[in-house]
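Bench notes, afternoon.
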Amino acid sequence: MKYLWTEDTGAGLHFWKLVNQLFFNDALVVESKESNQGLLDALSDIDMKEDDKYYIAFDYVVDNQDIRNKYRMLKSIADKAEGKIVILDMICFEYLILAFDKLVAWTGTGKTDKIKIREEVLLAIENHRINLSKIDDEKTLQYLVSFKRYSTERVMKSLVGEFTQNEKWSVKGSLMGECWYKDCCVSEHPDNLRCGKPKIEDGNEKMRRLIQSEKVQKIIGEVII
């Protein structure tokens, strides 16, 4: 069997399930272990059969010490598995959402300052972190330094939250993932005049648009199986 384990729940788990369905004909058993620690615990107790292979979607953020420590433990386990455990080189799910070039149109956001910051940050990402030397925009730099503990992950979560509003459709909301396969806007209020209702009604086509969009492809590269 081939497995794909992730720490993601909600929208993130939905993302991986649709990737499996649309691109791999449901060949993978997709499971959420709910946290990075949950992934480590599951791998420690693994009962691996001869033909089993495990793909691990681990949100590695280099400027988070706890995650770096967990990643070292994960890498140690994978190195001893003789190729049966493969770590997918992914950064946070929020980054993929943020890079989706139709997000602004779908939300109908009027936050022009945040749109500019989004563009600046996306262009400055290098090896899982934001290269501040590539950012000249003063408002973007002010936004980044406003975080008490600078972290790529926290910046991404905050920015995506700006575009999805603080509702059920936000990244932390339980319904965020459904916006990729239901004919809906990103806001939970369909009468929101700023909400750009997507013209595409078919869920599979929406998901293909997300994964195949140019900016997302640049991020994913060769990391998906």
